[in-house]
Each structure stands twice: as structure tokens, then as C-alpha cells.
Amino acid sequence: MVGTTQDLRFFGAGCCYPTAGGDIRGLMSAALLVVATDLPPLGLRIDQSAALLDDLLRLLAMATGGDYADWMRQVSTLDAPPEWNLD
Fold this sequence. Notes:
alpha+beta; 17% strand
């Protein structure tokens, strides 16, 4: 996972933007896939935004805090796979 929101900002600043073709409105959507062995995969997507990185940071904060973060800690991960009891 991205270590800090500053890391994510650095990642966003380094993204390549198209220089030709595409839509006159420019880039309006972004996605981030967070993968770690000790966390369940987390897919984030922002559509129709003029402030993509700010909205992606806000969504990441919502997904990694509060009740949702409590629930995510209970989901199986690569380091802690589900324990199937088929007996």
C-alpha cells in the first residue's frame, strides 16, 4: 500500500498525461489498486472529477478509517487465509 498520502501525491504527480487525442474535457477519472499481503485488496475509482488526486485521497482515507477499516481487518489476506472447517 502507499505509505502516506504524500506518497500518493508523489505517485499522482508522476502520472503520464496524454498529449494528443482523447476528450476535450481531459482526464476525469482515476483508479488505484492497493495490494499487500497483510491487507485485503482494495480497489478505488473516481469518475467525473476535476480534482482526481484530492478525491482519490479522500476515498482512500474513508476506506482505511472508521467502521470500514475495522471490517477490513477481519477479511482474509494472503498472510492470514481463511480457515475452512469442512469436517
